[in-house]
Design brief:
It contains 8 helices and 11 strands. The protein is of the alpha/beta class.
Length: 276
């Protein structure tokens, strides 16, 4: 029997592909609750998680809303949903490939390509075009990840200082320019008309010599963004706040771990060997 096609819901946006990146689950600034709203409020044939979905390998940092996001991804990966879920590995996700395939039933790629409306599309996280990360992976992890996570705990509830430093670092390293340049060259080499990245935490569209580069932005900022690909082309959307979007910077608790266990994520020691 052929698989059933999902029936479009009236008034609900329907896209070929929805893309979001840099959620950094486990970080105090991660806006997992709002990202989940985006997934629930839209229809799409394909979902691409474009890297750095986790802050690091320490699952003990995950809060209840982080586990809920992962639970929804696992539901979407059920073949009955008729949604192709693609996870593209980012530099913060390194080492999670096998774990994530088992945890949420999603295949993890270094790079993903697909065809839509006769055009080749590429999704790659973008750290491959960031020379500092490529050359200094260990230093970047110690300073750019562990220290950054600790700074979020020292910062105010609104994370004003940490967000400012994140934007300053992007501008100082000229990350947006470097990643865009490398991505456009990569797309032309593979004869793709559109290429999508994350990594810089800055949403961007750049057109050059018939090729379009799009950056998804991030979900640790005051103005998170995501991308859709559909009949109306490619659009960068800024998330619109809802009345129930109340952030909590609370520490992960035993209740969060219990929620993960009740949701079926912690079974048969599947996280054995992963820092908690």
């Amino acid at each position: 029997m052929a698989p059933q096609t999902a029936v479009p819901q009236i008034g609900v946006p329907n896209y070929d592909t929805l893309i979001l990146s840099d959620l950094h689950l486990g970080a105090d600034m991660s806006r997992a609750r709002e990202a989940l709203h985006v997934l629930q409020d839209n229809q799409y044939r394909r979902l691409i998680l474009l890297g750095d979905i986790f802050a690091d390998l320490n699952f003990g940092r995950l809060k209840k809303e982080h586990w809920k996001f992962l639970g929804y991804i696992r539901k979407l990966s059920n073949p009955k949903r008729n949604v192709e879920v693609v996870w593209v590995e980012g530099n913060h996700d390194t080492g999670l490939t096998e774990i994530m395939s088992h945890l949420v039933g999603v295949r993890v790629y270094q790079e993903y390509q697909w065809e839509y409306q006769g055009l080749r599309h590429i999704a790659v996280h973008g750290h491959q075009f960031d020379g500092f990360v490529v050359r200094n992976f260990a230093v970047h992890y110690l300073i750019g990840t562990l220290l950054y996570l600790q700074m979020q705990k020292w910062d105010s509830k609104n994370k004003t200082v940490t967000r400012f430093l994140d934007r300053l670092g992007t501008r100082w390293q000229r990350l947006s320019e470097k990643v865009a340049h490398g991505a456009l060259a990569h797309a032309r080499h593979h004869q793709a008309k559109r290429i999508f990245c994350g990594h810089t935490h800055a949403a961007l569209h750049q057109h050059e010599h018939g090729t379009d580069y799009f950056n998804c932005g991030a979900w640790i900022d005051e103005h998170p963004t995501y991308i859709t690909v559909g009949e109306d082309g490619v659009q960068i959307h800024e998330y619109i706040e809802r009345p129930d979007d109340l952030h909590s910077a609370a520490e992960p608790s035993l209740a969060d771990a219990e929620f993960a266990e009740e949701a079926g994520f912690i079974e048969d020691g599947e996280f054995e060997g992963v820092a908690t």
